[in-house]
Here is the input.
Amino acid sequence: MDIKQIQELIKFVHKSGVNEVSIEEKDFKITIKTNQAPTVVNATIPAAAPVAAPAPQVSAPAATPAAPAADDSKLITIKSPMIGTFYRSSSPDKPVFVNVGDEIKPGQVLCIVEAMKLFNEIEAEVSGRIVKVLIDNASPIEYDQPLFLVEPA
Amino acid sequence: MQNNTFSGLFVGQNLVKLSAVASTNAYVKEVLSNSAPLPEGTVIMAENQFEGRGQQQNTWLSEAGKNLTFSVLLSPGFLQITQQFELNKAISLAVLDVLKPLLGSTVSIKWPNDILVDKQKIAGILIENIVQGSRWKHAVIGIGLNVNQTEFPDSLNATSIRTILHRDCDLNQLLADLCRAIEARYLALKSRKFDRIHQEYLNGLYKFEDSATFKLGDELKTGRIIGVSNIGLLQIDFGDQICEFGFKEIAFIID
Here is the structure.
């Protein structure tokens, strides 16, 4: 079960009005409870579970239930490789490179960072979907400053 | 479209001449984005570049067939992204290397990379990089050099080789000279001769260590350029304080 399926499942359970759903597959078990206002998700994911999550902090002991539905931890943050000015399009009269909800793939241009009249087209390294654009067009940015949140494909 | 080669060089080995193109830089990036392999050193030359760009809004005006407008593809992955200004210095110097013997000692670099003769602009450089993660994949170097055009709008404060020498200049010969100069400076960069390049860049700067008037917002201030930082910030001594400026934070008043 991948992160998208889990999100779909949470939405489905939440809408259905039932209190609790447990699903157990051969190496995977998930329990979704909706009795209180905040939706609580307890999932036991063995270390070998095929959940694509490059975030290293997920290497918690296998037996410990995961924290409540913290989807954000699965998001990838794309950061600026340099100091400069952030541009969302190649010129003011051109459409933005990416919008929230857009699917992206490696090699796709996401933005331009300009520094000292040198223009840097920043390409995606991962496939996924843009969840959030964190910087306004034409704003100054620092080295390592988060620019986009991406939900990995 | 035709292919030519200049013997013994990697810059210009693969030369593509286009009769008309919106922008040679955009053309190179378009070819790259379609993941067509382009060898490093490929030169795209346009006889008529009708949408040449300076910075975001500024366009480079060129009469068809009279000037040099071309782009060079380089892959400076041996440099860190934080060393980008090193490439800017090397390319600016390469243009100076060709123009100084031709036009004399009044050729200079207006920080960061306009080329002036006395107080008038003769060439512009637009460097566009392609970066993935922290990897500098490509640099597309666009150069526009006014050669045989003699009429410019007054507002541009521009000049050309013909305006100065009163004779036409062969575009192909100039392109070959520029490719040779770019290659030499690029190889110096590869050999990490940063100190020498830095010193020559400073010596080539318009108004280096000379009193000049600068526009800071709405304010005019007199100061002296004393250096350029690692990332390319212009360092100016105003007498009471030394300040560093990024591009567009400051403008020269050329009187």
About this structure: Chain A has one helix and eleven strands.
